[in-house]
Amino acid sequence: MSNRLPQIVVFQEDELMQVYPYMLPYKIDSNIAIKSIDYDLEDFQNNFKIISKNRPSLSDVYFLHPYKENIYIEQSMAENYLIQERLALYTKIASLVGASQVKTYVRFEEAKSYELDVEGNLNYKVVTVSAEYKEKQEQRFSESIDDVSQYVRKDNYNLHKNIDEIYELINKNNLNHEIQLKSLVEGRDDRRGGIQLTNKSIKLELTSEVNSLYQLSAKITSPVFKVNANLKESLKAVNRLFLELHFEF
For residues 115 and 124, is the Cβ–Cβ distance under 8 A? Predict the structure, then answer.
């Protein structure tokens, strides 16, 4: 991801582009780009890959992909898209690391609401949710993965080669902060002391990246801007989800 690209892009009417800095009691920093629907849209479409169900339009908000270059995801589908990518990646790592069986569970941790005060300060509070809400959020993504996966190693299985590939995936996919995942891989690498793990349980956050984008996007919910209703609704309950995995080798 290029540090020079804004993490949030929103399209507004050109007239607002000229005056919004004077209408806000706070500054919009370089992580957010307010773009003209009349003059900036064509360049945006030509220069970036856009993940969206519809053509970009007025009030649309786009999140920069956290670890893939030059990709923007339309906000209403960003959570599902990024979590599904993470789930697919962790499933691949589970097969590469040489597990005979992996038990997988999606866990809801909490939900927070984010709100901007009149001075542009971001406030949040933990949302009280029902058991039904928690179960629904877990089921949204549990359906896309197997609760229990079993693997059989073939003759061409090469653990050391696979571990090297996992290290590359960790670097490429911005996972160096996932200490438990790195500990799992290092524990399977018998080149580091001649000892191997036989079982391990780890817990990985699925929503850290998209939640950071949601927090940042709260800056454009001022009445000065026209943003889609989905963003404002999403900020009322930003979910924190984890993936628990138990490996048997």
Answer: yes
| Residue pair 184/97 in contact by the 8 Å Cβ criterion | yes
Residue at 17: amino acid letter: M
Paired sense of beta strands 8-12 and 49-51, if any: unpaired
Question: Which of 201, 214, 213 has the alpha carbon at shortest distance from 242?
Answer: 201
Whether residue 1 is predicted with pLDDT greater than 50 in this model: the reply is no
What sections of 149-204 are H helices per DSSP?
159-172, 179-188
Query: H helices then E strands: how many in the chain?
Result: 8, 10
**Residue that the structure tokens 């806000």 belong to:** 24
- Number of neighbours of residue 151 by Cβ within 10 angstroms: 17
Q: Is the pLDDT of residue 3 over 90?
A: no
Q: What is this structure's pTM?
A: 0.89
The span from the CA of 35 to the CA of 167, in Å, is 38
Give 66-72's long-range contacts (Cβ < 8 A, gap of 24+): 66/1, 66/174, 66/209, 66/210, 66/213, 67/1, 67/172, 67/173, 67/174, 67/209, 68/1, 69/1, 69/2, 70/2, 70/5, 72/9, 72/44, 72/48
The answer to whether residues 230 and 77 touch, using CB atoms and an 8 Å cutoff, is no
Helix (H, G, I), strand (E, B) or coil at 126: strand
